[in-house]
Specification:
mainly alpha
């Protein structure tokens, strides 16, 4: 069986002392590194009158030119063409022709369609037939029904 290991029983080795850096080494280090880098031209070549402007003014002039170009293209493009409105063309069709189309085309007119139509044109109901309850019941009874669930 192995004896238990106790860290306190083992003495530490003495650390070798490292030499300290020269005085002011870390203060001068960034300057020495920057001095080793290749130097670019202090000022890029700017043509003519732009050389008289400060860099902030040149940036402002560039942004005004870009925004002015966008604004000019927007205003010179003109208004967008409006698509033709289909509702206006349906108003020109006579009602008798619309009713004939709905009766012969097999399109099913639901109550919601009639509700929307009467909401848009409140006086349209003047042309409807005014039938009594007995006439409506007789007309519904005369309709053929193939499904027995409706009876």
């Amino acid at each position: 069986m192995k004896p238990t290991f106790k860290l306190d029983a083992h003495p530490r080795r003495p650390r070798p002392l490292l030499s300290e850096p020269p005085a002011g080494y870390f203060d001068k280090l960034p300057t020495q590194i920057m001095a080793r880098l290749p130097q670019a031209d202090a000022r890029p070549a700017v043509p003519g009158w732009l050389a008289w402007l400060t860099p902030a003014m040149r940036t402002g002039l560039a942004s005004v030119a870009v925004l002015g170009g966008f604004a000019a293209s927007f205003f010179l493009s003109g208004p967008a063409p409006e698509p033709p409105v289909a509702v206006a063309s349906l108003d020109a069709v006579p009602r008798t022709e619309l009713v004939g189309y709905l009766l012969t085309s097999g399109a099913r007119v639901e109550n919601t369609d009639l509700a929307v139509l009467t909401a848009a044109h409140p006086n349209i109901t003047k042309g409807f037939l005014h039938a009594s309850e007995e006439e409506l019941a007789q007309a519904l009874d005369d309709q053929p029904s193939e499904d027995l669930t409706y009876l």
